[in-house]
Amino acid sequence: MQYPRAKKKFGQNFLIDSNILNNIIKEISPAKKERIVEIGAGQGALTSLLANSEAEIISFEIDEELFSQINGKFGNVKIINEDFLKFNLRNLFKGEKLRIVGNIPYNITSPIIFKLIENIDIVKDAVFLIQKEVAQRTVAKTGSKDYGILSVILGYFAEVKIAFDVSPNVFRPKPKVHSSLIHIYFKEKRNDIDEKLFIQIVKAAFNYRRKTLKNSLNNSIFKDCDFKKMEFNFNLRAEELSVEDYVGLTKLFKEFCNGKTRSTSPTA
Ligand code: SAH
């Protein structure tokens, strides 16, 4: 196979190891009647294997050069030459929840995960190869050094499993970081909280991870809220709160701080 010059801005690190590729396919385990959306076809290393399954495959590739190389090459796989982040996933939904997979561009891991959460009602699961350190954050427990925004948000919306770790040697070009394959199983919608508010609170809390909640929230879009009205220990730090603590906080904010958010553009 010919390897094109990789474009850094698109996070291109192509998989060249058939063993790893087969193990990724095993984890995805594509089945009949499923609609599987791949992010970043590249030269089609994974796409070609997915195409051998009985699932219906739709694959995104933002790079026009790569797109023109692989378009039409893999039987009935539909390749879409667009930015996955800008595409309306609802246009792909036909009643069966979508499965999302890929050796994704590592620089947009978080935006991809947030996009799936916004579409949680039409997404079943996701199998992604990502940077190992980020994978650790997706499964981190309260109070640990890796515990952060991704841990809390995925803790609420999903169950996450690290399937296996992957060495830099199986890519070309070799990335500077180690990788892990993660499997995200999205939960059914709980509908117990304002989910947008929950995400805003978690982001604001971890914005200053070493400070107390009181401090970080006072420096956030929530600075006009009257924290004294809420029965909650705001002297804790973001990393000390469990997912359910954030759920509780979201309910308090809904009751005592609704509509008082504002942007925090610096005034000085
Ligand atoms: N799956 C291939 C390629 C992985 S590299 C393999 O494993 O070999 C990641 C791929 O995602 C690159 O081909 C890159 O061009 C593509 N990509 C980067 N940003 C994208 C975006 N926003 N939408 C769709 N594809 C993107």
Written description of the protein model:
The chain has nine helices and nine strands. With 268 residues, the protein is α/β, with parallel strands linked by helices. The protein folds into two domains: 8-186, Rossmann fold (3-Layer(aba) Sandwich), CATH 3.40.50; 195-256, Helicase, Ruva Protein, domain 3 (Orthogonal Bundle), CATH 1.10.8.100. The longest helix is centred in the last third of the chain and has 14 residues, at 243-256. It is elongated, with a radius of gyration of 20 Å. The protein starts with 13 loop residues before the first strand and ends in a 12-residue tail after the last helix. The structure holds S-adenosyl-L-homocysteine (SAH). S-adenosyl-L-homocysteine binds at residues 10-15, 39-43, 45-46, 60-63, 66, 83-85, 102-103, 105, 108.
